[in-house]
Amino acid sequence: MTIDMHSHWRPPALIEALRDRAGPPHVVAEEDGSEVLRMRHGDMAMGEAFDDLDLRFADMDEHGVSTAALSLFGLFQWIERLPVEESLALTRIYNDSVSAICAAHPGRFVAFASLPLADLDAAAAEFDRAMGLPGMIGAQVPGNGFLDYAVAERYRPLLAAADRNRAMLFVHWGPLPGDKWPRVAEDADNMNARLFTLDMQASLSANMVTFSCTDILDDYPDAAIMIHNLGGNIPFEVERLDHRSIIDTPDQPIPSSLFNKPNVFVDCNSLGARSIEIGVAAYGADKIFYGTDGTGFGCDWTNRALADARIDDDERQAILHDNAAGFIAHLAELAPHRAPVAA
Questions:
Q1: CA distance 287 to 281
Q2: CA-to-CA distance for 67 and 62, rounded, in angstroms?
Q3: Least packed by Cβ within 10 Å: which of 78, 165, 269, 325?
Q4: Backbone angles phi and psi of 172, in degrees to 5
Q5: Residue 90: its pLDDT value, please?
């Protein structure tokens, strides 16, 4: 069976709280009596805005996912960037509700906490509180917080919280409170490609360099880091990084020797078979988790990619299940591992 470490959740538990809000993100009634979720960049019908647990189970069972690690879906992550007096209540609703799902379905779900990022003391306190709830394995944090060492220094309180809870930070592409977002103009040509692939992958690559090529994690040996989409473009650019390093900084370790820190991992969400092969070559199969975004389409895509990847069966099984189990089993109950998934 499979552990899906990148499985976003659109929490229906937030509906009532969002109805009470006066501005985005909030739920508003239309003239015909229907409701929509109003976000900063448009409206979404209520039937499309929130996830249904029965449908999620059906997707998981159809695609062989035994355990899914739930994390707050991107559009809802705006609650984390509100002023702390607003965001703390909303993130607590999310954390309590997602933990309740884990408790009601032991082993089928684990979860990453959501944090009120406008106040890092409050965020660290909520991290600690959430880790006392059933099923919690860590917290999701925005990639903009770790684009370089200077920015990451400000987020040491979250690294320290992960370390003392022996937990994982899921570093997901996204902005910090006050950041201009999106970075790509909405009227740009090929906007979706430029934003959701080019900008995303470049940002994740910068995150990988921060965590792997600096000493930012040296003080936090019990914290684990997961970066999605194979850690950006690093597997495809590592030879270029080595070449430039040999030319520009010959007295420094070559970058390819640094992308093997024991507490830095990536998931293979949204990448294909050839990319997974390159990722295994760059990092080792033991550094890669299975991820899907939490959709049936994502499961189909990742399952096909792993089945077609020219890697050993042991490497495939490590990515599907064993790597994640080894790093989160001490934090939460997992579904029984019944049998390897055939390639």
A1: 11
A2: 13
A3: 325
A4: -115, 135
A5: 96
* SS3 label, residue 262: coil
Using the predicted structure, report yes or no on whether residue 338 has a pLDDT greater than 60.
Answer: no
Largest Cα–Cα distance in the chain? 69
Q: What is the mean pLDDT of residues 244-258?
A: 96
Q: pLDDT at residue 72 above 80?
A: yes
- pTM recorded for the entire structure: 0.95
The CA-CA-CA angle for residues 313, 287, 309, to 5°, reads 35
Provide the phi-psi class of 117: left if phi over 0, else alpha when psi is between -120 and 50, else beta.
alpha
The answer to whether the CB of 238 falls within 8 A of the CB of 272 is: no
How far, in Å, CA of 79 to CA of 94, rounded? 10
- Give the pLDDT confidence of 19-64 residue by residue, as tens digits: 988 888 899 988 888 889 988 778 888 888 899 999 999 999 999 9
- pLDDT band, very low/low/confident/very high, at 133 (cuts 50, 70, 90): very high
Burial label, 184 (beta-carbon count in 10 A; 0-12, 13-18, 19+): middle
Cα 262 to Cα 212, 258, 327, 331: the distances in Å are 10, 10, 11, 18
Residue 321 contacts residue 2 (beta carbons within 8 Å): yes
Instruction: Give 232-258 as a DSSP string.
Output: TTHHHHHHHHHHHHHHH-TTSPPGGGT
